[in-house]
Amino acid sequence: QGGSEAADEAKSSAVATKGGPGHVDDKYWKRRYNYFARFDEGVRMDIGAWFEVTPESIARHIADRMPFDVVVDGTCGVGGNAIQFAMTSRHVIAVDLDASRLRDAAHNASIYGVDGRIEFVCDNFITFANKYSGRPVDAVFLSPPWGGPGHLDTEHFSLMDVECCDIVGLFAAAVALSPRVVLYLPRHTDLHEVVVLASQHGFAAVEVEKVLFEYPTPHLKLCVIYFTLEVATSLAAPKSAKKAIAATGVGVTKMPHRTGTSLRAGGSCSARGVLL
To answer: Taking the model in full, what pTM does it have?
Structure first.
């Protein structure tokens, strides 16, 4: 019983919400080291972050593909992606409208020792992008809200489904800011909408990287979509590849698998596989 009480206390202390300490569902609590390998060193997450933050192994993989001079994380949250970007890029600008979350992100970045490479900006991303006048931005990463776990109740996820933010507007602002944009979206995203979005903004092709988890049974988890000028040439022909990365944190026993698909705006499609 003592161990159970200690675990409940740890759950409460890990959650910082506007209304005070909350309770983390067990299914998310069990994954805490997947989200942040250094969780026990004092990582802070609010209630929403438990089902919104990018698992660390996936965030690291995305960051490995985006080693640039300046990267903008337009939907920073509690910093899962921004921290990993700071490990591969020279300068990261982390934008979020929630000041409390930005404080948590800065705190978490300090745990990983990269807070000095991240500039935290409290603002709406579209507003930030419209008034930005700093150094050229090499890439923008966006992980817009999906509407909570309830989004899985629908057969397909539309970019127009989320009421709390304008995903299409976020993307348009990102394209105006940088030639490279990466979207982090649900596994059942309507890819026809993605192709139309790419075509409207001048991308001849996009790469859709599908993330699959093995535990408890193999299942598709999410999609990472890369809108870059390089995609049209690098994915000109179908190919396959494998990549292995080490587990992050205590209790991580299964690593995700990913398959990548290139979708051309004209409707043709080529595929490649990436195993992590």
So the answer is: 0.80
